[in-house]
Amino acid sequence: MKARVTVMLKNGVLDPQGEAIRHALGTLGFAGVEGVRQGKVIELDLSATDKAAAETEVKAMCEKMLANTVIESYRVEIL
Amino acid sequence: MKARVTVMLKNGVLDPQGEAIRHALGTLGFAGVEGVRQGKVIELDLSATDKAAAETEVKAMCEKMLANTVIESYRVEIL
């Protein structure tokens, strides 16, 4: 079973990497980019076969390690 | 209009960051994680209002800057 975790900085947390991308896109001539946020995506191959159990386990991984929940939010998709 | 770009290393390209996550999850007691790949997600706020035009422009951004197409693949979603 595959799971995809998307980790983004929470709204209001400064994202210098996203800001750098926005600026660079402007330099390259892409107008009309009003904001950029960059995050991480983590794709996991799991041996679990039960969808609900897999989701619970991946959420535990996020809380324990994959995301810093003080400043980041995460979304789990089971594929 | 919002767009989401997901950039992943192509299959066959070594992903040491993903491998480090896999190892760390094992250390934390999460068994059954067979593989991990880490990528980037970039969320763009665009002033464009035409969906097809926005998709074409975001793909151009990927080819020019957001992804290194030699070793990375990208996926564009217009939200």
Please characterize this protein's 3D structure.
- The structure is a homodimer of 79-residue chains.
- Chain A has 79 residues and is α+β, with helices and mostly antiparallel strands.
- Chain A has one domain (2-78): Phosphoribosylformylglycinamidine synthase subunit PurS (Mth169, Chain: A, 2-Layer Sandwich), CATH 3.30.1280.10.
- Chain A is 35% helix and 37% strand.
- Chain A has helices spanning 16-27, 51-66, and strands spanning 2-9, 33-46, 72-78.
- In chain A, strands 2-1-3 form a 3-stranded antiparallel beta sheet.
- Chains A and B meet through α1, β2 and α2 of A and α1, β2 and α2 of B.
- β2 of chain A pairs antiparallel with β2 (33-46) of chain B, so a sheet runs across the interface.
